[in-house]
Amino acid sequence: MSTNFQASALRAIIVRKRTEYERKSGAGPVPRERDMEMKMKTDYGLMKMQLESLSEGVEWDITILSNASALLWDSLEDINWAGFYIMRNGRLELGPFQGKTACTVIEAGKGVCGTAVLEDRTQLVPDVHFFPGHIACDSASNSEIVVPLHRNGEVYGVIDIDSPFKERFTEDDRQGLETFAAALETIIA
Asked: 157 forms bridges with which residues in the sheet?
């Protein structure tokens, strides 16, 4: 196991344990402004390398997407859902994910995920409550980012990540997740 991977895993555990302590102790979360200053920048390059390593020699998409959803869940702070929807019969169907139960079918053009498919472009939504036709699978979600995935020149599915915080996702996240998606597309090609 590489030192970078171990350090990344340790940081994720520390952040998760801090959050669990704050919730259990009743102290509440660290104020958002202070939390943003303390926030560690997500290492998308490391995530890409981890994805490639975990996928080496694996042929089944579900196994690859399962580990990819776990990587997203463990690597990104302040999220409450991370996973995939896969195109099947012209609509998105729930794939591997981390988080609470989710919507199982989303029509193309509906909600943030369906819009990402219809427009074939990343949707970065700072406040889902202002997104026309937003589908609230989890009422705690306040922001969302959805990145299309491609196979053989067509939309194969989407990466979908939700956060309970408004404006959680940035342009850095968009670029990093699009790079992660491109690596994933190469793996599942």
From this structure: 86, 149
